[in-house]
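Now for today's protein:

——
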Amino acid sequence: MVGAGAALADEVGLAGLTMGLLADRVGVRTPSLYKHVAGQDDLIRRIAALALDQAADAVGGAVQGRAGSDALAAAARAFRAFVVEHPGRYAATIGQEPSGPDDPLAAAGVRLLDAFTAVLRGYEIEDRDADHALRMLRSLCHGFATLEAAHGFQWSTDIDASFDWLVAFADRGLRAM
C-alpha cells in the first residue's frame, strides 16, 4: 500500500495524494485502506520513511569505494536523480519529525546522513564543523534537486552544467575548510 501511495505521490504530487485516489488506484474501497494505514498522515509518514530509505540506498551505493570530490559528485548526482525521479515521495520527507529513535523515519534519516557523512570523510573537516558541512550539503543538494523537479530552471543554460558547477563549488569550499 505504501509503495502504491509513493508511486501515486510521484505522479500527482504529494498535495494531490488522497486516500480516495489511492483506493481507486489499487482497486479497493477507501475504508479498506485503513487496514493498512491509520489515515492520510500515517500514509505520508510511511512514504517519507520509504523515500529516505530509498535515497539512502541510492546515495550510499553511489559513494561506495569513492572519496573526496568523486564521492561528493557521486552522492550529489544520486540524490538529485532520486528527487527528480521521485518528487512526490521526496516531498513527504520535508517537515517530518521522528517520534523517537525506534521510528522507521529516524532510522532511514540516519542512513541517509551516514551516506553523506561518508562523503565528508574525504575532506579535512573538523568534528566541530561536521554538522555545518552536512547541513551545507543537504541544502545544496535539496535546493537544486527540488527546484529542478518543480521545473524551476526555465532559462536556457544547461542544467547539468549548472549542477556540475555547484558540486565543484561545494568541493572547493570543503577543501578550504
User: Anything to note?
Assistant: The radius of gyration is 18 Å.
